[in-house]
Amino acid sequence: MAFFFLVLGIGLQVLHWHALRRILPPKWSPWLAGGMVLAHLPLLVYVALRVTGASALDLGFALRPLARGGLYFLALSVLNLAFLTLEWILWRVRKHRGRDVDHDRRAFLRKGAVVSLGALGLLTAKGYREGHGTPEVRRRELHFGDLPPAFDKLRIAHLSDLHAGPLVDRGQLRLWRAMVERERPDLLLITGDLVDALPGEIEPLIQAFRDFPAPLGRFAILGNHDYFTDPRPLWAAMEGIGFTFLENRHEVLTRGQDKLVIFGLQDPMARNGRFRGLRFGPGPMPQDTAHLMPRDGWRLALVHRPSNWNLALEAGARLTLSGHTHGGQINLLPSLSSARIQGPYTRGIYQVGQDQLHVSAGLGMVGLPVRLGSPPEFSILTLRRG
């Protein structure tokens, strides 16, 4: 996966350099090429280490900020390349219609490049502040007529997509822990993507969430990113601080005569193996998982992808929690989430009959180190009877 993005990034930078070379004065070309190489060199080294399996964490904290700076430069230049392409198309359309808005094509595109770079610079700065800012706490009451009386007013902290790794530092993880702990939830549930890609990235998360006080337990499942390499170190590390993993498994919470069953379905990536040829499970198995659960328990499901809600319903879930979408992460139009390309369930509460799905926009970032129109969040869900 990292190798794919490395090749893609280099290809896009070559295209960007070629586009700028055609609109800037020729004497700038060597300086432009050299500057772009220097800006991306730390990022290339960092990604190369990840591709080879070496841990960039072993290099200390010096490389990561430089690599992150290169990633911001990459994001800015890729977006600028898109804007330059649109400007070129606009110039061609106007020329075809006989509207010669600028006699000098190079001057026209150069002005467009300056304007787009300014706008993109502001968007990138805003995206940085939003992505690294204080998460939103979304408090919701969810009503179910058949909720067992003993679990009325149960408070659940739902976290998803932490992506501990190069784009999320220790300070952010500690802040998230403190904010969630202040809510004093009965249950802490995490619906996957604990790390960005490597098992070694779990260590800061372990330090942040060690001894988290949740009277009724701490439960988690893995997401697709957690299966990019061997997930077993993640299981061991999280279980070492008191989390229970629910990969096609369940746990029963009992209060008096009432039972609440929490179960999880394994992410399809477990059986995919397309990144390193590794398979660590059968993927989601709703019928087998349901077969082992008590019939008289009220069922709450954890699935990483909201597109697997139908599988949770197949296993009898009344409430399903998921993440994966990041709420689109980068939404240039607030009313239109880019997560729509993944399916109809992007963020918030969805209901079919009496069954409900909650999709979290998550806390971390993936790919680009910015969030626009989709701030980081975690949810406090209060279950109510009636």
In words, what does this structure look like?
39% of the residues lie in helices and 18% in strands. It has ten helices and twelve strands. The longest helix has 34 residues, at 63-96. The model is unreliable at 55-61 (pLDDT under 50).
What is the element layout, followed by pairings?
Blueprint: H1 2-23, H2 29-52, H3 63-96, H4 105-131, E1 136-144, E2 154-159, H5 170-182, E3 187-191, H6 203-209, E4 218-221, H7 232-240, E5 243-245, E6 249-255, E7 258-264, H8 269-272, H9 286-291, E8 298-302, H10 309-314, E9 319-322, E10 348-352, E11 355-359, E12 377-385
Parallel strand pairs: 1-12, 2-3, 3-4, 4-5, 7-8, 8-9, 9-11
Antiparallel strand pairs: 2-12, 6-7, 10-11
Helix pairs in contact: 1-2, 1-3, 2-3, 3-4, 5-6
Indicate the CATH class of the largest domain: Alpha Beta
Structural class: alpha/beta
Biggest sheet, in brief?
Answer: 6 strands, mixed
Q: What number of domains?
A: 2
Task: Estimate the helix proportion, in percent.
Answer: 25-40%
Shape: elongated
Rg, alpha carbons = 24 Å
CATH homologous superfamily classification of the largest domain: Metallo-dependent phosphatases
Strand order of the largest sheet: 1-12-2-3-4-5
The percent range for strand residues is: 15-25%
- CATH third-level topology of the largest domain: Purple Acid Phosphatase, chain A, domain 2
Number of strands: 12
Helical segment count = 10
Low-confidence stretches: 55-61
C-alpha termini separation? 46 Å
